[in-house]
Amino acid sequence: MVRLVTSPKKRRTSVLENREFVDQKAVRKFQAVKRWIEARRDRLSRQGAVVETFRNYRGRKLGPYYRLAYRDRDGRQRSIYLGASVELAEQVWGLLVECQAELREQRERRRVRRVLHAELKKAKALWADELAKRGLRLQGHEVRGWRGSRKAEANGASQLLNQLDRDPQELESQERDL
Known about the structure:
Elements: E1 2-6, E2 14-18, H1 24-39, H2 41-44, E3 49-57, E4 60-71, E5 77-83, H3 86-133, E6 137-139, E7 142-144, H4 150-154, H5 160-163, H6 168-177
Antiparallel strand pairs: 1-2, 3-4, 4-5, 6-7
Helix pairs in contact: 1-3
């Protein structure tokens, strides 16, 4: 947005001021970094980050300064200096997020799969305990021991599968009766 501003020293002259980000060096730097990222998109899809750093000069803390940190093919850490511009750092960070979106999704799917596997393991352990009370055993996802178990017949194991669809409170009251 362009705004008309009068100079404090000279009231009669006016200067046009652009209030949006117009640092031409930052624009050129962003375009150069964007081309660099696009050329190495396969590598940066797995790694890379925008890092905020500070410097100390004569006891004063200066910064923040931003850089794009990554590792080269030899495993050495490298960086591209972005400068002190927060807007440039955010734009470069946005490009990296685009590049790394698929990797983040894969990691999230793996995490969910691990959680589901752990929950399945717990549920199978509870089911195996319940079957053991009735003289049956769980092998994989199959229930074994129907034929040879007299205890299973005495406890009405053939009705167990029919009861799985019932309300848990109803099942508990039936177990108390046995």
